[in-house]
Amino acid sequence: MVVGGLLLLAGAGFLSMVLLIKGGEGRLREPKHYGEASQVEVMPQVLWNGDVYEYRQHMVNILCLGIDGRGVAEKNEDIGFGPRADSIYLAVLDLDQEKLMLLNISRDTMADIRIFDSMGKDQGLYPMQLGLQYANGDGLSYSCELTATAVSRLLEGIPIHGYCALYWNGVGELHDQLGPVRVWVSEELHQLDEKRFPESGLLELNREQAMVYVQGRDTQENGSNEVRSGRQQAYFQELFSAGKRQIKSHPLKVFSLIRGIEPYLVTDLDTGEILALASWMRDWEMDQLEIRNLPGESVSGLFQDEYWVYQEEKKELLLELFYEKWY
């Protein structure tokens, strides 16, 4: 009787988990619309160079932000001067081809963002660095929603199905949970921080080194954000491989991971959606993480570097990733 009862409990628990994942999968397929500044609608069909392209409906796009705020994720009372989005990636999941790709969008990208005065009154859209959009919110969900809307606008209405923002200290916890990670330390990073990186070459990063590796840069150098972005991408590649191995061996690892980074995390993904994402990552046959960059050029602006997107190349990239030729 005892054994039978335990088996029933185990079966019920497994069934509950399956239903939770299935429910999450269903919700992830529906794009979200964020508040007053709702997203522009994606064009279902696009005419380009004489060909008609149709939007692919089997895509899930999750906005992933790295926030430069120290400490835990907390409400920002100083509108316009809060933490910024230091890194902006759109995780593009193709459910038909069972493939994940990250689209890197430079934080310096010049885009229309929504600005507010010190009293929180909406002042409209202004062309500024995209990373500043996060600072013009509450530092939490509203900042994420504003940034998701700005990214969707920049990408011509591509829908966003969810967001997650990780404050800088969360990188250390993420590294501890999913590491170890081995990366190439460049001469640039060695010169930037000789104490933590006494020499260049292949190195297995500790927690503190990982945090500097993804965030450090020489702000006196033009285009230093793009150099840092290259390091971030190398780190993400290795972290993805390490995390995939761990989740494949221990599927419930995702729960301890979320608990560890929760103080530094802002997300609108619920438990079922997170489990669905982890399930896809575990099952899809992907040895490496593909990362693409929104095409453009970094130039020195009046106060900060500015990244100007090549519009024609952007259109071609969007058609490649999100559309297919209509026959």
What topology does this entry show?
Blueprint: H1 2-28, E1 45-48, E2 51-55, E3 59-67, E4 85-94, E5 99-105, E6 110-116, E7 122-129, H2 132-135, H3 141-154, E8 162-167, H4 169-178, E9 182-185, H5 187-192, E10 201-204, H6 207-215, H7 224-249, H8 253-261, E11 265-267, H9 271-283, E12 290-293, E13 296-300, E14 305-309, H10 311-322, E15 323-325
Parallel strand pairs: 3-8, 5-12
Antiparallel strand pairs: 1-2, 2-15, 3-4, 4-5, 6-7, 8-11, 9-10, 13-14
Helix pairs in contact: 1-9, 4-6, 4-8, 6-7, 7-9
Could you tell me the number of beta strands? 15
Beta-strand portion reads: 25-35%
Distance between the termini: 62 Å
| Oligomeric state | single chain
The whole-angstrom Rg is 21 Å
- The total of helices stands at 10
* Cross-sheet strand order for the largest sheet: 11-8-3-4-5-12
What are the segments in which pLDDT stays under 50 over at least 5 consecutive residues?
Answer: 3-15
Average pLDDT over all residues: 87
* Biggest sheet features: 6 strands, mixed
**What pattern of helices and strands is seen along the backbone?**
HEEEEEEEHHEHEHEHHHEHEEEHE
Shape: globular
